[in-house]
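Re: export button greyed out
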Amino acid sequence: MTDPSYTTFNTFNTFNGFMKDCAENFGRFHKAADVLAATGKVDVDIGATPKTLVMRRDKVELFRYEPTAERTVEAPVLMVYGLIGRYTFLDLQPDRSLVRSLLDKGIDIWLNDWGQPGRGERWLTMDDYVDYIHEAVQWICRETGHDKVTLLGICEGGVLATCYAALYPEKVKNLVLAATPIGFHADIDDAPAHQGLLNTWTRSLAPEDIDRIIDALGGVIPGDFMGLIFTLMTPMRSLTKYNVDLLEILGDKDKLMNFLRMEKWLADRPDHPGAAGRQWLKELYHENRLVEGSFELSGRVVDLRAIVAPVLNIFALNDHIIPPACSKALGSKIGTTEYKEIGLDCGHVGLFVSSKSQGSLAEIIAEWLKARDE
Amino acid sequence: MVEAPRLADMWNLNRQVYALMAAWMDVCQRMGVYHAIASVPWGKAYERYSASLADTEKEDAKDFDWRKGFEAWRDIADKELISNMRSKDFLAAQRELLRSVLDLRTRQQEVADSVGRLFGVPTQHDLDDLARQITELRREVRASLRATQRHEAEGREGVVGQPGEG
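Workaround output, generated via the alternate export path:
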């Protein structure tokens, strides 16, 4: 138990330290104001790695990135992002870009950009998006002369890539997944409290609630709505982000710019097509059909055992959105014997943009692909 | 109970506005319940934080500054908030609030559609029907393109495979 005199000393010391910090922060505010005034649109550009539009179908665009190094892996790699947030997350800034890192390692990178789905896309299903992937794969094969491509799927995009690999195994050379949920109930018995809130909340709703969300909110899952849910999942971080945490970085231009780029990506959250959203939440989150072997796309069952390509499954050990157990569930379900899983010590966002993981994720992927490039 | 027939074009808008008001009152009630449950972890966090301060060792008290104190507070509050967000009471309150808000949104849209129809403005349903037709048309176009490409590919393979050719 503390001596009361130390409590008084403690309180005075704390207050004194706080006032001193306040004085220092005035200086930071001035500096930050200068930085913000000097910041134009160009400085907060994200997704800026040069690429060429090669095909457009509806709102979906296929891009090929400009190479930055001599090719080390011949098989082209198609990046498949999800419908929650935009692909620019993978290319946030030059020193925090999975895209640039892979290009610098001599990988031929292609990307499907889903565009900005709105109410006009409310009837698009996961079946349609897998069709778009198939069209992109065929285009890439025609352009490059390869029979197969490597798919690199991220989060929901990883689920789409996995479904494609199961439905079209003859077109997939390798399957690389990052932070991809496969077993949507795997967190029930095996997740720390701060992981899997999304799973818990979704399971607490009735299937009719999912339908009502989509029908009442314009036939889509609005980007703002999804953003709010993600904010709620990290309560204290969200509450302190724009005050206490911002104070820490105001005086550092580089950190402030990093912050602004991340904010720009967060603000660019398109709506999720409603029909695909129903499948995602009801058939996967609720019914876990993928691992149950009853998930159907375009009239065909997505049989994970049909995946015969080598699989590299990367996940974040501290992922609060996709609990590691949900990603690891893939290992026991696929047909290939060449399966490798790697857990990195970071969070969902940190897996792609943290300074700690920069380089290591691209290194792991590139080395694994090189070993399988024939 | 047998309902007397209602003339569809009489008092419809009034009924919809009444339903909208009832939905709004339901939201207010559910919001109150939600706030009551959502505020519980703050009290628990304060108790835990106070206890942690009371247990501060003499040496630690000397080095104490507001940042360390805030970090400790943030950590405790985060754990309490997340624990609360997993509780049955919170999940039930969140679910009921969500349902009431969605009901309110649906009633708003009904009123907006009714007013829109009065002035000949296309409703959300009209636009959704149009979007559905376009989506189905696009699916047919994509399927047709795939079939054409498949036939072309099969045709090329067939030509290559003919006897006498290299």
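Chain A touches chain B through 47 residues (CB under 8 Å). The button fix ships in the next patch.
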